[in-house]
Amino acid sequence: MATTVTIRDVAKRAGVGVGTVSRVLNDSDAVRETTRHKVQAAIEALNYSPSPVARYLSRGKSMAIGVIVPFFTNASVVKRLQGIVSVLAGSEYDLVLFDVENTENRDVLLTNILRRKMVDGLLIVSLRPTDSDMEQFLEAAIPSVIVDASHPQLNSIVVDNVQGGRTATQHLIDLGHVKIGYISDFPDNPFNLSPVHDRHLGYLQAIQEVGIPYRPTYYREGSLDSQEACYLAEELLTLPDPPTAIFAYSDMQAIGVLEAARDLGLRVPEDLSVIGYDDIEAAEYLRLTTMRQSLFDSGVKGAKLLLDVMEDLLPQPQEIILPTELVIRSSTAMPSQ
Amino acid sequence: MATTVTIRDVAKRAGVGVGTVSRVLNDSDAVRETTRHKVQAAIEALNYSPSPVARYLSRGKSMAIGVIVPFFTNASVVKRLQGIVSVLAGSEYDLVLFDVENTENRDVLLTNILRRKMVDGLLIVSLRPTDSDMEQFLEAAIPSVIVDASHPQLNSIVVDNVQGGRTATQHLIDLGHVKIGYISDFPDNPFNLSPVHDRHLGYLQAIQEVGIPYRPTYYREGSLDSQEACYLAEELLTLPDPPTAIFAYSDMQAIGVLEAARDLGLRVPEDLSVIGYDDIEAAEYLRLTTMRQSLFDSGVKGAKLLLDVMEDLLPQPQEIILPTELVIRSSTAMPSQ
DNA sequence: CTGTTAGCGCATTCAC
DNA sequence: GTGAATGCGCTAACAG
Are strands B121-125 and B144-147 parallel, antiparallel or unpaired? Predict the structure, then answer.
């Protein structure tokens, strides 16, 4: 039957004590070769492998890393997660995935994970801990890294979104655009305020730098959803004096803008320039000009940093800033007139 | 300090025994109201929550569901996973994610997961267990469900890929195409043989049904990667007598075909019709005609089935067949001449 | 070097 | 109803 074989069975079979078996399991050096072989033979014979759970209970380590992601349906989040998976798969840690879809959910999750010490390390994607969260963090003392958000007291992997927003807008300006619309994510999104704020700030800085006045009518906000962005873009494009270029907060939204243009019979880039942000895969297929932030790489870097922190317990919170890069494809060009 | 608060602390604080605390934790009915309140107060005061690990050890359940996915970078796999996440997030189970990138990896993983009983249930995506795996499955007796693959002895969620392949090809034929290329995944892919075989079979059936001879030159195979598919499509399209339509095994590959057409200055659908399979999100943006298989839904159904199996221990392996649907967009049309 | 023992935190009998 | 004792499988500290 499937009657679990325990360390005791192995010990008996090998004619040794459980302590010895435990030693060879954790390859302690203090075991005679002959004994080690006997034990290993017994392990083979019994087809034994130790229970990670019991090990955890006894040792206080779960050998698991928790990954908290918001809106797992979001393309850029998935891309970051892929980076995380790629490094964790090669580690000895299991990856426990938590999806956060709303704020209540979020709080409960964080509290449980932290209090119960369910994991040895925590990777938080695109979510900024509140100040009250921080107490729990400090209390739980679980090594953590935030990807795409930051907190002074926590390790984080970020990009300079102000700069990114500036560069994107600057690209449009360089092309000769003056009437530049901006489609944003909700800035009061309870999850991850800074990137949406920063990117918009970059946009503002760029236009103000060259003396383009800010036109509130050119600003729209909605969720990270191409449908909704499409709708917002149509609003912008049917204005009496519509923008000749639109900067979208994310590629998903830029895709919505592209659809709006198509629906309205506008050619891109002849009649309308569109620039996105992220460089998700679809951006390439659609030949969308965008600000690339190394999504996958942010996951890789975050996971590696976490692993480091878990080993050395680096005392100082690190903040790694990843570069951002303008990728010019075929969705931006000079305004037609 | 972060000194974990245990059930014992709660018991002491409430002036009761640990047994009683345990009872209210698992809301056993056999507890007096007043006592229950005392205990709950203590729990609140101490900010206590039980350790899932200890609970597991004592009860034999890990409260975790393992999800094994191959090539986590694959868009359709991600989509299925999203469906799984959406239902598991609402359950009391944690989701432990395992990524399989090669066959050795795969075997080790499966063995470990099964032998160690790390999880209470297992969801396997797009991977078919070998016969030798099956021994382990039966031995471990862990409730399992396979999504997008099947095995007579295991629960599974599948689509009829032969039918899907037929329908896709038939659509091209109905449009008037005769010279129909096919770009496949590797059929000797060690992971998931049947869909790639089945879909091609559907293609063959469809053309033979109407008397179109099979032309081996119109067949190419490569990985599920748009780059590679692009290359293969260029081979097809630069043939002396090139196909007027191409059926790609997956949308990702169809996207590669689209790129090849663009590189070659071919208009889609005027000069070339392209049909994909899956209906991933990008397919919509690109207005790609494709065979939709409800990726997300397959994850949802799989997770739900697993949950059911874990509760009732349905003895009979279920096989749920999901429908497939032709989605006509703008990448297919009549051949130009 | 190696056997024995005492927990890890909780669920579960078993008496009271 | 409720408290005390036992065990889940393993590690670690302690003798020998």
Answer: parallel
What pLDDT is attached to residue A230? 97
More confident call, B153 vs A166: A166
What are the tens digits of pLDDT across the range A288-325?
Answer: 999 999 999 999 999 999 999 988 766 778 999 999 99
Q: What digits encode the pLDDT tens for the residues B35-52? A: 999 999 999 998 888 888
B218: number of Cβ within 10 Å:
20
At B162, phi and psi to the nearest 5? -65, -50
Count of domains forming chain A = 3
Residues B140 and B249 in one domain: no
Same domain for A136 and A284?
no
One domain for residues A276 and A301: no
Question: Which of A49, A53, A97 is opposite residue B56, by nearest beta carbon?
Answer: A53
**B3 three-class SS:** coil
B17 contacts: CB under 8 Å, gap ≥ 6: B11
Q: Which residue of B has its CA nearest to A49?
A: B116
Spell out residues with C-beta < 7 A from strand C.
A 15-20, 23, 30-32, 34-36, 54, 57-58, 60; B 4, 6-8, 18-19, 22-23, 25-26, 48, 50-51, 54-55, 57-59
Q: Do B18 and B99 reside in the same domain of the chain?
A: no
Nearest nucleotide from residue B20 CA, by C1' atom:
D2
**Res B159 pLDDT > 90:** yes
**Which among A63-67, A142-146, B177-181 has the top mean pLDDT?**
B177-181
CB contact under 8 A, A285 and B140: no
Q: How many CB atoms lie within 10 A of CB B239?
A: 14
Q: What is the pLDDT of residues A92-123, one digit of tens each?
A: 899 999 998 887 788 888 888 888 788 899 99
Residues 6+ apart with CB under 8 A from A286: A255, A258, A331, B285, B286
Using a cut of 0.85, tell me whether the model's pTM lies above it.
yes
Q: Is A207 left (phi over 0), alpha (psi -120 to 50) or beta?
A: alpha
- Spatial separation of the C-alpha atoms in residues B248 and B282, rounded to whole Å: 15
Residue B1 above 50 pLDDT?
Answer: no
Q: Which residue shows structure tokens 């969260």?
A: A133
* Whether A185 and A282 share a structural domain: yes
Q: Which of residues 12-41 of A touch strand D (CB under 7 A)?
A: 18-19, 21-22, 25-26
B1 in a structural domain: no
* Domain containing residue A209: 161-294
E strand or H helix that includes residue A147: strand A144-147
Query: What average pLDDT does chain B have?
Result: 91
DSSP A317: P
Residue A267 DSSP symbol: -
Please check whether strand D approaches the CB of B38 to within 7 Å: no
Shared-domain flag, residues B166 and B287: yes
Nucleotides on chain C within 7 angstroms of protein Cβ? 1-5, 7-14
Torsions phi, psi for A70 (to 5 deg): -95, 145
Residue B257's CATH number = 3.40.50.2300
Torsion (CA) B11, B12, B14, B15 in degrees, nearest 10: 110
B65: Cβ contacts below 8 Å, ≥ 6 apart:
B88, B91, B93, B94, B95, B96, B119, B120, B121, B122, B123, B303, B306
